[in-house]
Structures are given as structure tokens and as C-alpha cells.
PPIase cyclophilin-type domain-containing protein (Apatococcus lobatus), 234 residues
Amino acid sequence: MMVLYSQATARPLLVFMDFAVNSNPQGRIEIELFSDVPVGSRRFHQLAIGDRGVGYRLSKIDGVSKDFVKSSGVSRLSYKEGDETSIAGGDALGQLEAEMELSKHPHTESGLVSILVKDLTPKKTKQRLVAYQGKLISVEENLGGANPNGTSFAITLRPAPELDPSNLVVGRVVSGLDVVQQLAALPSVKANKDSPYFKAAKAFGDKRANVAELGFGRPFGKVIIAQCGDVEGQ
């Protein structure tokens, strides 16, 4: 296991996150970043320190379960819409996908931190005619919502091989895993995927079922990353 080191002190690069539930402090975790996934680790570090005003501070934890907790991350990678981002890997996820192909860090234990790179959820599409260079051409339009932007992340609480095809592991929790366990135990929206009504609605393409599914595991309370940054820079 290769760890990312600070150039200033040659110590492992650590970031911290302080969590709050309904404005009440919940505790701190520290995350050690891996050096053999340099783009993903540098990306996570930049988001943790809030590089150029873009970062995880005040982001929500919007999914909890016995297997992992997750955050949807940030909505965009630049402070102003349309600006070029300085975040490692940029808006395109090709470099992160390449690191996934070479990754030696499957989700085999608790405390692993990974960012969502690929959305494997089946999406509906439709063909649409658009004008291009004086001709009408057919293009495929995605009806399933936005693709990942490489900022959503998960922290495992047990082996989670279901994340291997979609997430890139960038580090591990070295302090405060009990805080993550407390978050995972918070009251949340029950995942009723086995309900016959839900299954029927999904089978018939009822949009209400898709909306309901997005809320599965969402904590009833407001859970946020109240503060985050570089441990060494405190």
C-alpha cells in the first residue's frame, strides 16, 4: 500500500473532516491518501482543503447504511460556472477511469475512502434529431440525469465489492472510524426495494419509483461536513 506524502515534511498526507448532525458536532475523522492513485488522491486533497473556493466543506452526507456512508460531493469543480477548474483530473473523468483500471485497492475492508467515477445505473435514452453542418443527425439523449463529476465519495464500514466497478479508492480512515459508524446508525429512509409495489412501479417505468429510490438511505437529520482540510495545515 503506497501512501501520498507531503512534499514539505515527507510525512503521509492526511486530511480531516469534522461532521455535524443538525448543527451538533459529531466528531472528526482523518484520512490517509494513497500515492499510487495520484490523480484521485490529489483531487480528494484539493476538495478537502477547498482549493480556489471549491471543496467539501458544508457538503451533505446524503446516504447511510451498514455497508458505507456517502456524500454527493460538490455540484461543480470551479467557483464560477464556466471557469476552467484547477482540480486534478478536471471535469472529464478519463484520468480517474484510467487509474481505476490499474488500481490495486479493492473495497475489501472498513475505512476505505473512494470517489464515484462511473454511474452504472441503467439509464433510459431516446434518439433526437439535431442540426449539424446543415444536416439533421440522430443523437442519443440521456434521460437518467447527470453523470458523476468525480466528487461524490463513500467511506466503507465493511467489505463492499459492489463499489469496485464504480468507485476509485483514494485513501483510508486512520482515525475516527467510530464517528463514521455513528453516522451510519442514524435514522434514515428505509430502502423498500423488496416491496412488490416498488418492484411493479420500477417494472412499468413509473418515475415516482425512481424519485423514491434516490431517497433510500437518506438521513432524516441534516448531516454535513462542517469543516475539512489538511491535518498538517491546521
Notes: The helical segments are 38-49, 94-102, 177-184, 196-203, 207-214. The chain has five helices and ten strands. The domain at 14-119+148-188+220-230 is CATH 2.40.100.10 (Cyclophilin). The first helix runs from residue 38 to 49.
